[in-house]
Design a protein that fits this description.
Blueprint: H1 6-24, E1 31-33, E2 36-38, H2 51-60, E3 64-65, H3 66-76, E4 81-83, E5 86-88, H4 115-128, H5 151-169, H6 171-182, H7 187-196, H8 208-218, H9 223-237, H10 247-255, H11 266-285, H12 293-304, H13 306-312, H14 315-333, H15 347-350, H16 352-364, H17 379-386, H18 390-393, H19 397-415, H20 418-433, H21 439-447, E6 449-451, E7 459-461, H22 462-479, H23 481-484, H24 487-494
Helix pairs in contact: 5-6, 5-9, 5-16, 6-9, 9-10, 10-11, 10-14, 11-12, 12-14, 16-19, 19-20, 19-22
């Protein structure tokens, strides 16, 4: 590479004159070339041998092998160009100042990682080429998460919440869905007539069924289960006495009237029903209010019991159990929110960890299931629709941007797609650019407490934990570079 910097040219000229002086002064005991020992230095290219190698031979009194000195120079050529305490950039030959003087962290690291966890990270890097992605602590809240709520359960429950909010907050969609249940063939003519009338809501109703189909596909919900969910939720939201919708009311509505024939096999049916019971337990028992939790858990255990629920109980007995759970859920739903935020419910704070994880699952649904580094075409429309879930899941604009940045960052870490990192940085900026929150919203966000990152017992709120996790990962990439970048990788980076 051609360097025009006068300082660098002077450095190389001084280096050549030093090498020539060392050879001509007789300090080198013996010089060995490919042809053998030589005393003539006219054939030696002083610009392509390592001066440090010559000095080492002079100090030790060893024979200088020109081929070894040339190889050493070639190996050192891939390293940053140094001049004492100053180094030069490959893309910009102006002096960039002195390199870092900070000593790399020793083991165990100061950020709380043990030697064992550090070695695990190193092995993970050697196997995958990436550092393990950090955790925010959201998945390990103070209240914990029911061991029966699995990752796939969260995904399916997230879809149910999304569809419920679509039907509840957009009654025109309910009307269309009701007509669809009666006579599907008339659906598109109805939508067309609405668009022709320039209804204010027509923009939001533009191809809603295509959007819903895309979401259902992304969330991996079967058509038969989806049809059942829609039927039950349309009945739920059509109840004029229903003032607000929440996750317990959704699960109870789905448990009512469910039959084995809807599912492909009995195992899937039992797992689906147990999931609803697990979600109810997680949501209702997370609240610190002194409800009859013992009676609640006993009722939910009967729902999980295949023999007792399906064969021993009558229909009226099953209805009584569901009604008792509904009464307990209603006692919590009727409580006011803690901070008086507009639209706040008790569930915003009592089960915030479930709310955040469900919303994360919806955001992960924006990525193509066949190409997880790519957002689907409908991502923009779906993001608009996701706002309908905010009143149920307790999501604010600031919290949305923070969670979306975290999801994008995790997807970038898994796929190493550079655009996803750019999107994540953009969402972080939007989270900080959100207009100043009201004191009530600030108090609400601060109450969403979880543990710090990397096993640290420090308590942070969700937003702090997300940004701390991203910062921790970046710090580990920078501070521990000497353990993750071998010479081959460094050579590739320097020659990229």
């Amino acid at each position: 590479m051609d360097f025009d910097t006068s300082l660098l040219r002077r450095y190389r000229g001084d280096r050549r004159r030093l090498t020539e002086f060392l050879f001509s002064s007789g300090f080198v005991r013996e010089v060995q070339t490919a042809a053998g020992t030589t005393t003539s230095y006219t054939t030696i290219d002083f610009d392509s041998i390592s001066t440090d190698c010559v000095l080492d031979c002079i100090r030790s009194g060893d024979v200088l092998d020109v081929s070894q000195a040339t190889d050493r120079y070639s190996n050192e050529a891939v390293l940053p160009i140094m001049d004492g305490d100053t180094f030069y950039l490959q893309t910009l030959t102006e002096s960039a100042g002195s390199p870092p003087h900070r000593v790399p962290p020793s083991l165990p690291l100061e950020n709380g990682k043990s030697v064992e966890s550090f070695n695990i990270e190193k092995k993970y890097y050697e196997a995958t080429g990436r550092l393990p992605c950090p955790h925010t602590g959201i998945t390990e809240p103070e209240n914990g998460t029911h061991e029966g709520v699995l990752d796939d359960d969260l995904r399916e429950s997230a879809y149910e919440v999304f569809l419920s909010c679509m039907l509840f907050f957009r009654p025109e969609i309910v009307a269309a869905e009701s007509r669809n249940m009666k006579k599907r063939s008339k659906l598109f003519s109805i939508l067309k007539s609405r668009r022709e009338k320039n209804c204010p809501e027509s923009e939001y109703l533009e191809t809603p069924w295509n959007i819903l189909h895309a979401i259902r596909t992304q969330m991996q919900i079967s058509e038969s289960v989806d049809a059942f969910i829609r039927r039950r939720l349309v009945i739920l939201v059509s109840d004029k006495s229903l003032e607000q919708i929440d996750i317990p009311s959704i699960s109870l509505a789905l448990l009512t009237g469910v039959t084995r024939s809807i599912f492909t096999d009995e195992k899937h049916f039992v797992h689906w029903r147990n999931r609803q019971a697990n979600v109810l337990e997680e949501i209702l028992c997370s609240d610190n209010h002194k409800i009859e939790k013992k009676a609640l858990r006993a009722a939910l255990e009967k729902i999980r019991n295949l023999q007792e629920w399906d064969f021993k109980m009558s229909t009226s007995e099953r209805d009584d159990i569901l009604l008792s759970v509904d009464h307990l859920a209603a006692s919590i739903s009727s409580m006011p929110g803690r901070f008086g935020v507009d639209g706040e419910t008790r569930y915003w704070t009592s089960c915030y960890h479930m709310n955040c994880m469900l919303y994360e699952k919806l955001l992960f649904g924006l990525f193509d299931i066949l190409e997880d580094c790519t957002l689907i075409e409908e991502a923009g429309e779906i993001l608009k629709l996701l706002k309908l879930t905010w009143p149920v899941l307790g999501i604010t604009e600031k919290l949305h941007h923070s969670l979306f940045s975290w999801v994008l960052f995790q997807q970038f870490h898994a796929t190493e797609e550079q655009k996803l990192l750019e999107y994540a940085v953009r969402e972080v900026g939007r989270a900080f650019d959100v207009d100043s929150c009201s004191p009530k919203e600030i108090a609400y966000l601060r109450s969403l407490v979880c543990f710090g990152v990397a096993g640290n017992e420090t308590r942070l709120n969700v937003i702090q934990s997300i940004f701390s996790s991203i910062s921790s990962w970046c710090d580990s990439k920078l501070q521990d570079y000497h353990l993750y970048f071998d010479q081959v990788y460094l050579y590739l980076v320097m020659t990229y």
